[in-house]
Specification:
Length: 295
């Protein structure tokens, strides 16, 4: 074999290993939803898409099917580019003007709600991919009427919290502290998470009630609870969302689940094997070349 052909063979071996790495499947990842105070879509998902308890969640599934709940972490706009008020019309804030999530815009007072009080509040956002960006939590003004669709003008321009999101997370969560202003009755906390490494942004509505849980208004109102890790894992196979093609850095957070750790180990093992295979192929070619020269 000529030197040129040997070099081409070595390059082919390395390319084959690289192709293997490219074709190795990686877990799909979406981006996140507020768990504290729990968002509308997450509260319904926590009840169980097939075993719902709240009437509003049952009505959501009757209108839109179960998929919006299994895709609880996908209320996004890929090309938002900070133009939130320009591209999301009044009355469509909770769905981010996406038809798939249209039921989230319903102006009803029986959405599962979180009891809160004015003052310091610890926000928890469950993420499934970490992004550099800014997460801003707004709250409706005093006098907000929850029986009417949410408008941009309903939001207090002073955020309840602003958080610079890093590429790392706290075991799958962004946790940060804000301040809830003096309010009474039922309100909405509205999340806007604008990425800095991509024009993509994420949105969400969380229903809150100032005062005790019994102070919530609306017949049939239940206390909102966040999905457990077991619930998230159980529903993962039914999710259709992925961050692929949205651009920018995608950093999957460390998850508490054993399944996530296993997936990470599998990927690492595949990378190690492919790299080893490439090195072995090149080494074998060079060894053969040396032996022929010696002969």
């Amino acid at each position: 074999m000529s030197a040129t052909r040997r070099r081409l063979a070595a390059a082919s071996a390395v390319a084959s290993a690289a192709t293997l790495l490219t074709l190795t499947p990686s877990p799909a990842s979406a981006h996140g939803s507020v768990f504290g105070p729990v968002s509308r879509v997450s509260a319904c998902f926590a009840e169980g898409p097939e075993t719902l308890k709240s009437q509003v969640c049952k009505d959501l599934v009757a209108d839109s099917g179960t998929q919006p709940l299994y895709d609880w972490n996908e209320v996004n706009i890929a090309n938002a580019d900070s133009k939130h008020q320009q591209i999301i019309p009044d009355g469509k804030l909770c769905s981010a003007n996406r038809q798939k999530f249209r039921a989230l815009d319903w102006a009803r007072t029986d959405w599962p709600a979180t009891a809160v009080a004015s003052g310091s509040y610890n926000f928890n956002v469950r993420i499934t991919a970490a992004h550099l960006g800014t997460m801003t939590m707004y709250i409706t003004k005093q006098g907000f009427d929850p029986t009417k669709p949410l408008k941009w003008s309903d939001l207090d321009p002073t955020p309840a919290a602003t958080y610079s999101t890093p590429r790392a997370s706290d075991n799958g969560y962004y946790r940060f502290t804000g301040t809830l202003p003096a309010r009474t009755g039922r309100h909405i906390v509205y999340k806007v998470w604008q990425r800095h490494d991509s024009p993509e942004a994420f949105y969400g509505c969380s229903d809150v009630v100032f005062g005790t849980a019994s102070a919530s208004t609306g017949a049939g109102t239940t206390t909102g609870t966040a999905p457990t890790e077991a619930k998230i894992e159980a529903g993962a196979s039914r999710s259709t969302v992925s961050h692929a093609g949205h651009g920018g850095d995608e950093h999957a957070p460390a998850l508490a689940s054993a399944e996530a750790r296993t997936s990470g180990s599998s990927s690492a093992a595949t990378v190690t094997w492919a790299a080893g295979a490439a090195l072995f192929a090149v080494g074998a070619l060079l060894l053969g070349r040396g032996r022929r020269r010696a002969g």
